[in-house]
Amino acid sequence: MDFILNIIAALGLVPSKDLAESMRESKTLTLMVIIGLVLFGSFALFLFHMAGKP
Q: What does residue 11 show for φ and ψ, rounded to 5 degrees?
């Protein structure tokens, strides 16, 4: 769980402590945050891939 908290803090989300507390209580919220981060990262990689094509 600390890994996710470090990612949230690195993204500059100010209320990360409140989010972290809510994530500890809710498995659904934790899953939604993980899926959101994966989708966001995948989209960023896709954009970098498309920008590199001639």
A: -75, -5
C-alpha 7 chain-centroid distance: 7
Instruction: Report helix, strand or coil for 54.
Output: coil
**31-54 per-position pLDDT tens digit:** 999 999 999 999 999 999 999 887
Write out the DSSP string of 13-36.
-TTHHHHHHHHHH-HHHHHHHHHH
- Inter-residue contact 5 to 16 (CB < 8 Å): yes
pTM, full prediction: 0.64
